[in-house]
Amino acid sequence: MSARALQVAGLTKEFPSDDGTIVALAGVDLTIAPGEFVSVLGPSGCGKSTMMTIMAGLDAPTGGRVTLGDRPVTGPLLEAGVMFQRDLLLDWRSCEDNVLLQFQMRGLATAPHRERARELLEMVGMARFARRYPRELSGGMRQRVAICRALVHRPPLLFMDEPFGALDALTREGLNVELGELAARAGTSVLFVTHGIDEAAFLADRVVVMSPRPGRIVGEVRIDLPRPRPIEVREHPEFVRYTGRLRRMLTDGRQEEAAARLRADGTEEASDA
Ligand SMILES: Nc1ncnc2c1ncn2[C@@H]1O[C@H](COP(=O)(O)OP(=O)(O)OP(=O)(O)O)[C@@H](O)[C@H]1O
Ligand SMILES: [Mg+2]
Predict the structure, then answer these.
(1) Whole-structure pTM value
(2) What is the CATH topology of the domain spanning 6-79+155-272?
């Protein structure tokens, strides 16, 4: 378990573009306590991936601070497992060797970890494909290999960006349960980005909701149900109340955005006239 809290304070990120500067994040404050599971919901393009990449130490913010415990994060966090929105598997390595890449990247021998890699591939239903190459797999199958790669070194910190997006509903449910159990058992601190409201609430201690770009955190819901949870928890009235609140937060954000856009369009039209 990560004994240290991961914290961002006043995080801003701007990207230069041909049409001027894109402000992706505008003052994000977020702390993930040791062992806490935090899900992030927000409309497409609001800066979720950008925030995750910066928190994992893979990109620098324009402003603000990222700290792990009392140390600033200035480069890739080696104690983290990261699963990106695109799977980033290496096409010239078998599935198993893609999973074992974690150890090679850290200059460690792979042989002692082969069995663990196979166990994980088995868990996600990919044991038969261990020696096959990513180009032979479907999108969902590739994602499952990427999940194994993010977990194989038992990271105390885990970053997952829409990890189950390309999966069919039942496989997704199964992996939600597996991930929930794994993370609770190991006390892993997790930042989990998703578009699935149910999935976000099912897994998390806390769900944070981001505004449309420029991304800020505009609300949060604490899911006060013991973890790990059985899949049936999603039918409990309490759980349904949590997801209802999250849905309303997202809808309100969208309506505010639409109203702001209408006001802006109105101003342009008025000045054209
Ligand atoms: N490297 C980059 N260069 C320029 N603009 C970028 C870059 N990365 C992201 N952006 C812009 O920053 C904003 C946030 O992007 P980001 O990928 O973080 O959104 P997201 O919330 O993850 O969206 P989605 O749900 O669609 O994955 C977008 O407007 C995007 O175009
Ligand atoms: Mg994204």
Answers:
(1) 0.90
(2) Rossmann fold (3.40.50)
